[in-house]
Structures are given as C-alpha cells and as structure tokens.
Amino acid sequence: MADALDIDEKAKGWRGSREVWLAAAREAFLESGIDAVKIQPLASRLGLSRTSFYWFFEDRDAVLQALLDDWEDTNTRRMVQASEAFAETIAEAALNVIAVFLPGGGFESRLDLAVRGWAHQSDTVAASVNRADETRLAAMRTMFDRFGFPSGEADVRARTMYLVQIGYISMQVQEDLGLRLKRIPDYVKTFTGQAPTQSELDRFHARVGMV
Predict the structure, then answer these.
(1) 13 falls in which pLDDT band (50, 70, 90)?
(2) 3-class DSSP state for residue 148?
(3) Which residue has the higher pLDDT, 170 or 139?
(4) What's the CA dihedral at 56, 61, 67, 73 to 10 degrees?
(5) Do residues 33 and 117 lie in contact, with contact meaning Cβ atoms separated by under 8 Å?
(6) 108 vs 94, 166, 178, CA distance in Å?
(7) pTM, whole model, 2 decimals?
C-alpha cells in the first residue's frame, strides 16, 4: 500500500519536502562523508528528479548549511538544555548532562563525529565546531557556577567533564552499557567532587531506561 502511494505521489509530480531531502543528505553524510552529499546522488537515493531539489534548497551549499544547523539543533541545543535542567545538587546536574550522551539521550554521537571529520576539510565548518564546543563548555561552566564553584575550578571541571564525553565519541569507544553505567557514580565524583546519592542514581537509571 505504501509503495503504491509513493508511485502515485511521484506520478503527480511529488517533489518530496525539505525534511525528506535533508534526511537523505544526513543519511548520505553519516554513511559516506560530506563528499557523498551531492544533488544527483541524493535525487537517485530518493527516486526524485534533480530539479525537485531546487524547490527546497538554492544549491548544494544550502543543504550543507542545513546539515550544520541540524547538528547544532540536535546536539548543542540538547546538551545546553541538559546543563540548565533542574537539579538539587551538582552531582544530579552532572547526571542530567551524562544522560544526554547515553543511548536515547538525544545527543547523536555519529553526527558529532561526522561533523568533526568534515571540519578537517573546511575552515568554515572548523569554526562552527569551535563555536559549538565553546557554547557547550560555557553552559557547563555556568552549571558549576550555579552550585558555587570558583570560576577557575568551574572551568577546569567543565572541561574535564566535556572532554571525557567528546573523547568517548572521537575515539569511538565501544563500551558495554552496563559497564559504563557502573562507572558513572565514580565519573560524577571525579567531575564534581561529590558522589551521587542512591536516590539520584535511581532517578538517573529510570530516566535512561535502566531500572
């Protein structure tokens, strides 16, 4: 039924949508890198005409910028929101941020890794990555500031916490989720100087789907 609908839509001149073209660009990017994001291959992937692309994007540069904007919205925004989420203690605040990086937490590690790889080919993208890193670090410094840490210490703790998370991504660490969860209380204590309470861990485990 779905296939018949697709054929009918194409017969009527269906051009897709901005979201459909962007999703195809993102999939190609994650699979094969930025050089795979080209208009004709995307059209072939979608089974649409090349000219349909231009209803939604002015040119290839426009879809590349949309990919960057999507990355910012998916990863940077969600991480900043997590750092600003309500927490009674700095340990709970750290757990809020850590949860974002776990499966289902909203932060897309493959996308972050792909954009960082792209940054090696483009000064413009490298500048975007640097800005995003600073935005994320600033949010985490503010999180530590909120709990009364001196500015220098807040900066170092924020950097330690963030760079560990990015290290997991950049090194493509393959770690059993159970083992990672087991390590998290000690990570929190290292990052914040404060061990999470059992009730904080229980809420965290419930949030990430590990009861």
Answers:
(1) low
(2) coil
(3) 139
(4) -90
(5) yes
(6) 19, 12, 19
(7) 0.86
